[in-house]
Amino acid sequence: MSFFRTLHRRAKEEELMDDFSTGGEELHEALRHLRRLNKLFAASGPTLSGVAKLWKSIGMPEKLTLMDVGAGSGDVNKRLLRWAKKQGIDMRITLVDMTEEACQEARQLFQNEPRIRVQRADLTTLPDASADIVTGSQFIHHFEGEQLVNMVGHMLRVSRYGVVINDIHRHTVSYKAVWITTRLISRNRYIRHDGPLSVAKGFTSQDWQELRQRLNHETMTYEWKPLFRFSVVIPQQEGGIT
């Protein structure tokens, strides 16, 4: 993955993690290193911001169920659990991923956390209204075109109240920062290849506007958050949120 790359359009190459025929210990290592990257780049912030926004819009219920799809290790949810405890919310989170390696890492990470359940599954096969809120962190940049629209549609179908998306801002600064950081902290080929590519497959404000139009969902909102991420909220209920 070249340090010098044009980012005018979203990259179309597949990430190594998109190949489900590979994995094993190398993928386990990549997931552990990804947790370090998530911590360095404050990956949990946009998810928390979006969930808090949507929670307030539905009347701040005392009980809340979340489903994090494409969750990987699910580490961004640690901050959500702390926030829920502080707010007095009885929150239960289901972490969903298609790979056994990710599910194993999530089970290990949350082995002493009864509020977390791990499920190996494909988003497209999940039942309707499985959780109050469906979240996806660094998940939908894996898709483009009609497939992107369909996957967000499935997230909406699986949620009762709406969807929160946390994904990467496609920008030269974020690309170079991730390129350098991945090479400083890891020799893992998944991390070195997929880290920068994730930024190249990320989004700009124009991309979110186009997605809102294609979804025909005027109540969808998006906000830029540190560090070079977007928090996107797509409410299920009529009227949306402000």
Quick rundown:
One of its GO terms (molecular function) is methyltransferase activity. With 242 residues, this protein is α/β, with parallel strands linked by helices.
Task: Throw out a few tags for this protein.
single chain; about 240 residues; alpha/beta; Rossmann fold; seven-stranded mixed beta sheet; 7 strands; about 40% helix; Methyltransf_25; methyltransferase
Largest sheet: 7 strands, mixed
CATH superfamily descriptor: Vaccinia Virus protein VP39
Radius of gyration: 17 Å
- Secondary-structure element order, N to C: HHEHEHEEHEHHHEE
Shape: globular
- Could you report the average pLDDT, rounded to the nearest whole number? 96
Q: In the CATH scheme, what's the topology name?
A: Rossmann fold
CATH class assignment: Alpha Beta
Domain count: 1
CATH architecture: 3-Layer(aba) Sandwich
Number of helices: 8
Low-confidence parts = none
Q: Quaternary state, please?
A: single chain
Q: Distance N terminus to C terminus? A: 40 Å
Describe the protein in words.
The protein has a seven-stranded mixed sheet. α2 runs parallel beside α3. The mean pLDDT is 96. It is 42% helix and 20% strand. The relative contact order is 0.19. By secondary structure, it is of the alpha/beta class. The chain has helices at residues 25-40, 45-57, 77-87, 100-109, 145-158, 172-185, 189-200, 205-215; strands spanning 63-69, 90-97, 116-120, 131-137, 159-168, 221-225, 229-235. The longest helix has 16 residues, at 25-40. It has a single domain, classed as Vaccinia Virus protein VP39 (Rossmann fold, 3-Layer(aba) Sandwich), CATH 3.40.50.150. It starts with 24 loop residues before the first helix and ends in a 7-residue tail after the last strand. GO terms for molecular function: methyltransferase activity. This is Methyltransferase family protein.
